[in-house]
Write a structure and sequence with these properties.
Blueprint: H1 2-5, H2 8-21, H3 28-42, H4 46-55, H5 59-75, H6 79-84, H7 91-104, H8 113-123, H9 127-144, H10 148-165, E1 174-180, E2 194-199, H11 200-219, H12 224-227, H13 234-243, H14 247-256, H15 262-281, H16 291-296, H17 299-307, H18 312-325
Antiparallel strand pairs: 1-2
Length: about 325
């Protein structure tokens, strides 16, 4: 009767009282707990809704309520409340609901379930699980968008993943990267998910690649179409860094990703040789106004400038000498 009148507050009041006086095991309790949950959630009475969900003896109804509980509180930006509940033995189901939502919602949606999962796991000191979540979030950002903002998000996710892994025992310095989710065909690999184990070093390499992309784009946005391609390799990126004169960053990438130093040294040597020829042909006065641009983009050049008063040519050759000696 109260429900027919459309009074949500009345429904909450009546059903709350009814659940306190009706004996346990009575069949009407299933519907009463469900209604109490439904209207408490609509009225943003989250504590009451949570209690109604947990006390519902029907497992399927409780699971359905849990899905609505997570979605509504996420949309209402009640992340702290979501993370603070203990869920009374339903923790795995909560995590499953959040993971399903995270993978089904657009990665750039304003209600990001990856951030929710990260908060949930870190609040429970499950840093290894938090690392998995952040890596997957970053991977999707790079694959599902060709904009620089996606690269920045990806970099933030990867560095967060690295920090989380460093908070756990070294034997857990790895995560599982899903390669292919096999659906509807259980005959392939026994219906299992093909996966690849990534070590902390692998993730640090991925972060260095993304960081290097951002360094280039900050100074040379014309490379956006090329660098926002998720399939650009470390070798490709090394070539671009050398091309634009970001040799310090090229060396960082080379060291982290175990690339050959030869191409970096050759590229810098060619720039130095061209600079020497330019100065000779112009009788000691360079006509290339871009020289100082790429020299000043490297910290090594700044250190040289602070310790000597050499010409621009001297500084370029000195930079090559320092690289080789180190």
């Amino acid at each position: 009767l109260v429900e027919d009148l459309g009074s949500k507050e009345g429904i909450v009041h009546v059903t709350s009282h009814a659940t306190s006086v009706i004996p346990q095991g009575h069949p009407s309790l299933l519907l009463l707990w469900s209604n109490l949950f439904k209207y408490s959630l609509q009225l943003e009475l989250y504590e009451l809704a949570y209690d109604a969900m947990i006390n519902n003896p029907d497992i399927e109804r409780r699971r359905e309520c849990l899905k609505h509980f997570v979605v509504v509180l996420t949309e209402q930006q009640q992340l702290k409340e979501l993370c603070n509940y203990n869920y009374a033995g339903m923790e795995e189901e909560v995590e499953h609901v959040m993971e399903i939502r995270a993978r089904s919602v657009d990665v750039f949606h304003k209600h990001c379930y990856y951030n929710l999962l990260y908060c949930y796991y870190t609040s429970r000191e499950k840093y290894w699980r938090a690392a998995h979540v952040m890596y997957e979030y970053g991977l999707r950002c790079g694959l599902e968008s060709s904009e620089p903002r996606a690269l920045q998000k990806q970099a933030n996710c990867y560095i967060t993943c690295i920090m989380c892994l460093k908070l756990v025992n070294s034997k857990y310095h790895w995560i599982v990267k899903p390669l292919e989710l096999i659906e509807q065909d259980s005959s392939v690999n026994g219906g299992k998910v093909e996966c690849k184990v990534l070590t902390l070093l692998d993730i640090e390499k991925s972060y260095e690649i993304v960081r290097s992309k951002l360094v280039v784009l900050q100074k040379y946005p014309s490379f956006t179409p090329q660098l926002c391609n998720p399939y650009v390799t470390a070798n490709d990126l090394q070539v671009i860094l050398c091309q634009v004169g970001l040799f310090d960053d090229a060396l960082k990438l080379t060291e982290k990703c175990n690339l050959s130093l030869k191409s970096v040294y050759e590229s810098l040597a060619i720039k130095c040789a061209h600079l020497s020829n330019n100065l000779i042909s112009s009788r000691g006065e360079s006509t290339d106004t871009t020289i100082w641009d790429w020299l000043s983009d490297n910290d090594t050049t700044y250190d040289i400038a602070q310790s000597s008063e050499g010409s621009v040519l001297d500084q370029a050759w000195n930079m090559l000498r320092i690289y080789i000696n180190n």
